[in-house]
Amino acid sequence: MHTFEFVRPADAAAAVATAVQAKTAQQGTDVRFVAGGTTLLDLMKLNVETPARVIDINRLPLDKIEATPDGGLNIGATVRNSDLAHHPTVQRDYAVLSQAILAGASAQLRNMATTAGNLLQRTRCVYFRDTAMPCNKREPGTGCPAITGTNRTLAVLGTSEQCIATNPSDMCMAMAALEATIHLQGAKGRRVIPIGDFHLLPGSTPNRETVLEPGDLITHVTLPPPIAGSRQFYLKLRDPASYEFALASTAVVITVGGGRVRRARVALDGVGTKPWRSPEAEAALVGQAVNQANFRQAAEAALRHAKPPSENGFKIEVAKRCLRHALQTATA
Ligand SMILES: Cc1cc2nc3c(=O)[nH]c(=O)nc-3n(C[C@H](O)[C@H](O)[C@H](O)COP(=O)(O)OP(=O)(O)OC[C@H]3O[C@@H](n4cnc5c(N)ncnc54)[C@H](O)[C@@H]3O)c2cc1C
Ligand code: SF4
User: Fold this and answer.
1) Which residues line ligand 2 (CB under 6 A)?
2) Buried b (16+ CB within 10 A) or exposed e, 112-140
């Protein structure tokens, strides 16, 4: 059985000082932070993650939701998903984030799951979670059986010949549409990373999922001030109506004036290898009249570069319809 040391640091600096001793912050690391534990402990039970040291960050003062001086929102790394989704400011100004979180997992899981843990949740690809199978993400160079195997739920955008795993996070997608920024404390000081640059495409190194380096602790996430007059909507399509990851989902933040789209932010989940913001759909929308034909154009643009493997071509049409319906609802 896998054994590990459990560490409870007094402050963030001590947490970073312990974590920096790791060889990597990516798959296969020997040191992991634990927050809610709803991803990490599952993977440890499956021997997909085998850290020698687990650093509990739950006592660190990272659990606040506060206004920023510029009118945005500061969300601590250990804020529970439930507290974030039900926060009055989030419900009023960042509704798409609240809707996305509440569409994920179960109430019990959301009560444990944290902001940072959700940012770093792992793919649900069945081969990744089964150590009897090869998987380039888990063991680089062993192959990707999903490309010709069970891939119904996997990605059609951002894939590579090494990996087609979907990023499963509903929260991340909403944060992509809201242009969140991730704040890190690491061995070399603090860093600030736009969410679009935080997750990496699989390319030839699917084991490397984010820009995190050994020691990096996510301290908080900031959201920019809400866009006056914007309308927001989140829609998730999945097999059972609850407690399931998205086949396709979308978050839209859109501003309309004089019957035309003035500003649009569009993100998709269930189809991309990272939280998928679509500049193609946004460009297709801005300046155009609010109507079905233009929403159709935007959906076509969002999925234009989709490459389905053997089982999941249906997702392309599902994602297009999801986006069209979300745009229609947001602008109604
Ligand atoms: C049955 C089930 C159903 C689910 N359904 C959905 C769903 O429909 N939609 C969805 O989006 N999600 C779903 N989830 C995933 C869930 O949202 C995540 O497990 C959860 O958000 C992870 O948060 P956590 O705090 O528990 O992370 P943990 O398990 O504590 O940590 C996850 C990872 O983040 C790292 N980490 C945590 N905090 C920090 C930090 N501050 N700095 C650096 N690294 C850190 C850990 O080292 C670990 O690698 C589901 C999970 C389960 C078990
Ligand atoms: S899709 Fe990625 S995670 Fe799944 S088997 Fe292939 S390499 Fe592993």
Assistant:
1) 123, 125, 127-128, 135-137, 144-146, 154, 163-165, 206
2) bbbbbbbbbbbbebbbbbeeebebbbbee
Q: Does ligand 1 have an atom closer than 6 angstroms to the CB of 22?
A: no
C-beta separation of 6 from 31 below 8 A? no
pLDDT digits (tens, 9 = 90+) for 200-224: 999 999 999 999 999 999 999 999 9
Instruction: Give the N- to C-terminal CA distance of the chain in Å, as an integer.
Output: 56
Where does the chain have alpha helices with state H? 12-19, 40-45, 81-86, 88-93, 95-102, 107-112, 115-119, 170-177, 195-198, 279-285, 292-303, 314-331
In ligand 2, the atom with minimum distance to the C-alpha of 136 is 7
CA of 218 to the centre of ligand 1 (A): 13
Q: Which residue has the tokens 């154009």?
A: 297
In this structure, the chain runs to a length of 332
What distance in Å separates the CA atoms of residue 277 and residue 282, rounded to the nearest whole number?
9
When pLDDT is cut at 50, 70 and 90, the band that residue 1 belongs to is low
- Residue 87 gets the label, from left (phi > 0), alpha (psi -120 to 50) or beta, of beta
